[in-house]
Amino acid sequence: MSLFDPKNRVVEGTNSFGKPKTPPGQVATRKFPVLTFGETPEISTKEWRFRVWGEVEREIVWTWDEFMAFPQSTLRADFHCVTRWSRFNDDWTGVFFRDLMPHMHVKPAAKFVMQHAYGGYTTNNALDIMIHEDVMFAHTLNAQPLAREHGGPMRVFTPRRYVWKGAKWVNGLEFMAEDRPGFWEQNGYNTPADPWKEERFG
Ligand SMILES: Nc1nc2c(c(=O)[nH]1)N[C@H]1C(S)=C(S)[C@@H](COP(=O)(O)O)O[C@H]1N2
Ligand SMILES: [Mo]
Predict the structure, then answer these.
(1) How far is 112 from 8, CA to CA, in rounded Å?
(2) CATH number for the domain whose boundaries are 2-28+44-197
(3) Model confidence over 156-173: pLDDT tens digits?
(4) Which residue of 3, 7, 11, 133 sits 20 to 30 Å from the alpha carbon of 187, by its own alpha carbon?
(5) Ligand closest in space to the Cα of 122
């Protein structure tokens, strides 16, 4: 899918969402450091699967082609890492969580979402945040396929939260009635993780 494909909706003006562009304690960089705990999985789009389970009417497994058939969007947004660097003005292309919602048959009891990934990484967010904060399943960055070390073929990007709240190599969502901490959250990181409130740890 090209950035200029007519099927691709470009979402304008969402950068920093009306908040000060640089969150407190962050420094701008043009570099793109890689922050991965453990191995870097190698997953082809052919073998990639996406599973939805937990508080849903029925479990779903989507292939790559099935996932790519959902509405595609491009979001221009900034990337805030808890280790105090921020990248500005990247174009992320993929599927918004909110555009997946009608297809996941989520039960009313679901209030939290755990992302799961190849390699075992997890991170938890409130369902409200996933729906309302431009959370995207991204496969393309600045019109290029997302590099494997940055989560290719598919990662979650949470533009309004520190970026550990998005799993690289995502392969599933678990809908939950009760919250549960993900990988870094079990290790002392904050759960809402709002960069403008500097919710880093604790
Ligand atoms: N699967 C997986 N996703 C992950 C991580 C990880 O170790 N494994 N690290 C998280 C953290 S702590 C950060 S800061 C960002 C880093 O993304 P980047 O390597 O593309 O900069 O990915 C997040 N998603
Ligand atoms: Mo991180």
Answers:
(1) 29
(2) 3.90.420.10
(3) 999 999 999 999 999 999
(4) 133
(5) 1
